[in-house]
Amino acid sequence: MRFLLIFFLSISLVYGQKPNVILIYVDDLGYGDLGSYGSKTIKTPHMDRLAKQGLRFTQAYSTSATCTPSRYSLLTGSYAVRRKDTGIATGDASALILPGQQTIASIFSKAGYQSSAIGKWHLGLGPQGGPNWNGKITQGPLDIGFTEAFILPATGDRVPCVYVENDQVLGLQANDPIQVSYTKKIGDMPTGKENPELLRMKHSHGHDQSIVNGVGRIGFMQGGNAALWKDEDIAQRLTDRAKSFMRRNQKSPFFLYFATHDIHVPRLPHVKFLGKSGYGNRGDALLQLDDSVGQLMKTLDSLHLTQNTLVILTSDNGPVVDDGYHDQSKELLGNHQPAAHLKGGKYSSFEAGTRVPFIISWPAKVKKGQSDALVSQIDLVSSMAALVGQSVDASQAKDSENQLATWTGQSKKSRAYIIEQAGSLAIRQGDWKYISPSKGQAVNALVGIELGNNPADQLYDLSKDPSEKNNLAMENPNKAQELKSLLRALMEK
């Protein structure tokens, strides 16, 4: 460990500063969506470039099959499942990460980094009762270590449909205050349920409340008309902000948390991408995402920062095709396989729910190639702390481990176990995976995804059965019980 620390500090001295770090956290990107992961359909040259110049992991995991818990775990180093309030957050939820709690941003801040949160947040804002949309928004990114922020409060399909810059709604006019409710209709804003003739994108399920930009959303809002976003412009607005941050901080080390929204619904890519993939709006959104990544890489190149910038590209959970809107993604899916050979998808305890692309590029340090080591996003906090010579409060980052040697290709050592949160809780150790019993529905009929819920124990040998077709719990009761006991012990620590 001492040798690694000295080595990384020597790299920093060679380049005159500590390495910059960019985390590109994609929304709903599937294991089979990228060319570098085997896709022969939708072209993703810029993300594939990262894989070619860096290290591509084949067995990397988010901590959850849905967004809010994955983001919480990633930023804090503690599994969200340890809490009772980290399901999918509403758009008016109060802050899940409170001031004073250690985060990856606070660790970078202590190391002298400038840090920015740009893109999807979805971790709540403000005190109990939710944020004050019409004043200073407290308990947000700036209160947990980020030096600046430009965020979507929740998701594109949830109100309020506004940008928050640092600690206030961007473009809000005092004479048109925002009101938000997730319990009852407020004001006279049209809804998808009452005014379907006003929709330019029909909903397949849910998403029939307040209409913004011709699209039904989850939740009700009133006011804030001058502040409302236009979905088609979101990707470029976020990308421009990210490029500006990089340019302004090119002389000092920076950490950029770039949380894209493109593939998440509603998928309304800019007109220059619309219809270009041939695979519906989801495919077009993938092209838009790849373009954004390309712009960031081009900016790094122009600033001569590529060599000494560590870039991580990964996803918060697995893919979903129809997640509430008729956008031709399902009808035009063709032979594209967002989850590749894996079973399940977003919301699922099966592999496609949490096994995601994971690419690390750092030309000055990371060896090119492929790693089959088991890695998890839960280790971001401890691994990046080791990178910049900072300590970790283990009482807060309960589950994070320093995996920097593996992440940078210096070691092939796998994590001892992987925990996956969905409707059922699962654990992987080596090639074995155990899914705990659950009484939930086996298939989410609305999105067409097998969830992995089963009232009985499930056990799979992923080395022989990566698609989880053969439940071996009855044949191997001792192994099932061993993993069941380990999962219980880990969750009780």
What would you note in describing this structure?
With about 500 residues, the protein is an alpha/beta fold. The chain has two domains: about 20-170 and about 220-405, 3-Layer(aba) Sandwich (Alkaline Phosphatase, subunit A), CATH 3.40.720.10; about 425-490, Arylsulfatase, C-terminal domain (2-Layer Sandwich). It is about 20% helix and about 15% strand. The protein is built from ten helices and 20 strands. The protein has helices spanning about 1-15, 45-55, 65-75, 105-110, 235-250, 280-300, 350-355, 380-385, 405, 475-490, and strands spanning about 20-25, 55-60, 115-120, 150, 165, 170, 180, 210, 215, 220, 255-260, 310-315, 360, 370-375, 420, 425-430, 430-435, 445, 450, 460. The strands form five sheets. Strands 6-5-4-3-11-1-12-13-2-14 form a ten-stranded mixed sheet, with helices on both faces. A four-stranded antiparallel sheet has the order 15-16-17-20, with helices on one face. A two-stranded antiparallel sheet has the order 7-10. A hairpin with a 2-residue loop joins β8 and β9. α5 (about 235-250) packs parallel to α6. Residues about 10-15 have low confidence and may be disordered.
How would you name the CATH homologous superfamily of the largest domain? Alkaline Phosphatase, subunit A
Number of helices, where a helix is a run of at least 4 consecutive DSSP H or I residues: 10
CATH class of the largest domain: Alpha Beta
Uncertain residue ranges: 9-15
Our measurement of the CA-to-CA distance between the termini, rounded to an integer number of angstroms, reads 25 Å
Helix share of residues?
10-25%
Name the strands of the widest sheet in spatial order.
6-5-4-3-11-1-12-13-2-14
What number of domains? 2
- Mean pLDDT comes to 95
Largest sheet: 10 strands, mixed
Mind telling me the C-alpha Rg? 22 Å
Give me the secondary-structure category. Answer: alpha/beta
Helix and strand element order: HEHEHHEEEEEEEEHEHEHEEHHEEEEEEH
How much beta, percentage-wise?
15-25%
